[in-house]
Write a structure and sequence with these properties.
With 349 residues, the protein is α/β, with parallel strands linked by helices. It is built from 13 helices and 7 strands. It is 45% helix and 14% strand. It has a 7-stranded mixed β-sheet, sandwiched between helices. The radius of gyration is 19 Å and the shape is globular.
Length: 349
């Protein structure tokens, strides 16, 4: 049962986060007027209108109310966003703002593959060697890993964590009646470990493996979860995971598919089906897709115009349920969560 003080504290905390990240978004808006680089969408701006600021703010409030309702329902504990100290916030703010004009210049030149080199391509897939969002270092440097969460929260107006936490609801439903100590959860393409931290807050005794292709981002995830035990870290490609067949109880992945080519999505889906135990669960979250939420399609089509996302245009048209079913999983649920989409699948017993 949440007390009035708990509810007030949550509302105040989220309001301050929204103000902080939206303020940075407005401050960087002037740099988003340059022409985009080449991607799998047309260079012309989509003519279809997006939802507008008023609609976005109403839907944002609904997202936070859902987050709070989930806590009241016992799906997970009152969230701790772990943004760091005021000094941490200011340091990341300066680093973020310093990269904005550099990214804008990169965007104007269409320079989306500065991080690519033949040497790196021997170890990493070519699709990964890009300056996603035109950010410096792509996903390969410590500096990029340090400001990644700020970049995403500026993009999502402070709602990223609330959307991620919705993945804990199908996890709660699957975990009912099970011994945490005997459950192995693997978070694939974990990035800086934000969702992994939420899993550990809710289920401190599960065995959790965080996997990512970027050593720099995995190092940031290790720092982010340093207070938790029972966590393993694996540098691995989602196309070839370091797990035996049928060895993982629950597999989660947040914001991966829109950054890989269509063929790779299907390879990854089959790999996920391979490592899941019979009766295991896949909890997947990524961007909204076309047709998911009325009035949002124009915004989705505009996204790659402002950010280097070469595979996003194909992602928003994908039939995710079919991809997972073709891989051998049973589709259980799909639904929008503000700017994201939650998909739940189970492996047949």
């Amino acid at each position: 049962m949440l007390s009035p003080i708990d509810k007030f504290a949550y509302a105040a905390r989220q309001a301050s986060r929204v103000a902080w990240f939206m303020g940075h978004g407005f401050a960087t808006g002037q740099f988003r007027q340059t022409r985009p680089g080449v991607s799998d969408v047309t260079r012309e701006r989509p003519r279809e209108k997006g939802p507008g600021l008023d609609r976005l703010m109403r839907d944002l409030a609904v997202c936070f109310q859902l987050d709070l309702d989930n806590v009241a329902s016992g799906y997970y504990p009152l969230p701790r966003d772990a943004d760091g100290s005021p000094a941490d916030l200011l340091r990341r703010s300066r680093a973020f703002m310093a990269d904005v004009p550099v990214a804008a210049e990169r965007k104007a030149k269409g320079a989306g593959t500065e991080v690519y080199s033949a040497e790196k391509a021997e170890e990493l897939p070519a699709y990964f060697l890009q300056n996603f969002h035109y950010q410096t270092g792509g996903y390969l440097t410590e500096e990029s890993a340090e400001i990644y969460d700020m970049q995403v929260d500026v993009l999502f107006s402070g709602s990223t964590n609330a959307m991620r936490r919705e993945c804990l609801v199908p996890l709660y439903q699957w975990m009912k009646g099970k011994d945490q100590r005997k459950v192995h959860i693997a978070d694939i393409a974990c990035g800086t470990g934000r969702f992994g931290r939420f899993v550990k807050q809710a289920y401190p005794r599960v065995q959790l493996t965080l996997s990512d292709l970027s050593e720099a981002y995995l190092a940031e995830a290790r720092r982010h979860l340093q207070d938790y035990s029972g966590v393993n870290f694996e540098v691995a490609n989602a196309e070839k995971l370091p797990f035996p067949d049928a060895s993982v109880d629950v597999l989660t992945s947040v914001y991966l598919f829109h950054e890989v080519p269509p063929k790779v999505r299907r390879i990854i889906a089959r790999e996920w089906a391979r490592v899941l135990k019979p009766g295991g669960r896949l909890i997947f979250m990524d961007s909204l897709q076309l047709g998911d939420t009325q009035g949002y399609d124009g915004m989705l089509k505009s996204f790659p115009v402002n950010f280097h996302e070469p595979y996003y245009g194909s992602y928003i048209k994908e039939d995710l349920a079919s991809i997972f079913e073709d891989a051998g999983l049973t589709h259980a649920e799909s639904r929008p969560v503000f700017l994201s989409k939650l998909v739940v699948c189970d492996k047949p017993t």
